[in-house]
Amino acid sequence: FERSKFLKICTFNNAKLFNKTKFDNANFVNFVPDFRGASLHEATEFYGTKWPSPPEDIQSAQSQVSAYEHLRKEMDRLKRNNDEFMFLRKELRARRVLTQNLLVKFLDILYEFLSDYGSSIAKPMAWMGAILVLGTIIFCKAGLNFGTSLLFSLSNMFPFLPIGKDFIDKKELSHLSSPAEAFSIAQMVAGPILLFLLILAVRNMFKIR
What's the rounded Cα separation, in Å, for the pair 168 and 101? Predict the structure, then answer.
């Protein structure tokens, strides 16, 4: 099935793949292939495969969740950790459409946006850097010098580091504007969350390898 283009739904229900099967660079345009009940050979390959866009309606979401769920379980059985994690991310994205709880949906969007479901190291690092730089700029404009602004940003985002606010003149901090204080609080919340997502991504990277 290399480089094949599937315009309609493709079903392998209850199929038994007894030999190497390649879907490399195949394009499933509208539907995820349905392997429910199927048993895949350990040499079933999905390198460069193009999958359908995330669902927008409930029916498509239900179909994708069922299809990705079985593929994920098969990859787990075959100890194909990279593929298992890839199908898990796609399954979670499809499940979002079925979620009625707005808080859960928001957290799911945030989880994907900040770390691609715990698979991206670059995203949380980039967000940490951006918030750190932005905070330094805001605190500089609020009246702190550059060194103090940078130290204050670092101590907000990483309170466990030995660079606490004890090294900063309290009188300087007392003159911060309300927006600067609000951003300081945002840094205190964002820092540990982004650090957790970074550690999770590193853990997942070594786990799937």
Answer: 43
Contact predicate 8/28, CB 8 Å: no
Task: Give the Cβ contact number of residue 109 at 10 Å.
Answer: 12
Which residue from 44, 55, 141, 123 is spatially nearest to 93, judged by alpha carbons? 55
By C-alpha distance, which of 174, 135, 171, 128 is closest to 151? 135
| Greater model confidence, 209 or 172 | 172
When pLDDT is cut at 50, 70 and 90, the band that residue 194 belongs to is very high
Q: Is 186 exposed, middle or buried (0-12, 13-18, 19+ CB in 10 A)?
A: middle
Confidence of residue 163 (pLDDT cuts 50, 70, 90): low
Render pLDDT for 34-53 as a digit per residue (tens, 0 to 9).
988 888 888 888 899 999 99
* DSSP string covering 97-165: HH---HHHHHHHHHHHHHHTTTT-SHHHHHHHHHHHHHHHHHHHHTT--HHHHHHHHHHHH-TTSS--G
Measured CA to CA, the distance from residue 48 to residue 1 in angstroms comes to: 12
Q: Are 35 and 71 in contact (CB under 8 A)?
A: yes
User: Measuring CA to CA, which residue among 1, 9, 102, 96 is closest to residue 48?
Assistant: 1
Q: Which two tokens stand for residue 125?
A: 């690092």
d(Cα 12, Cα 192) in Å, to the nearest integer?
45
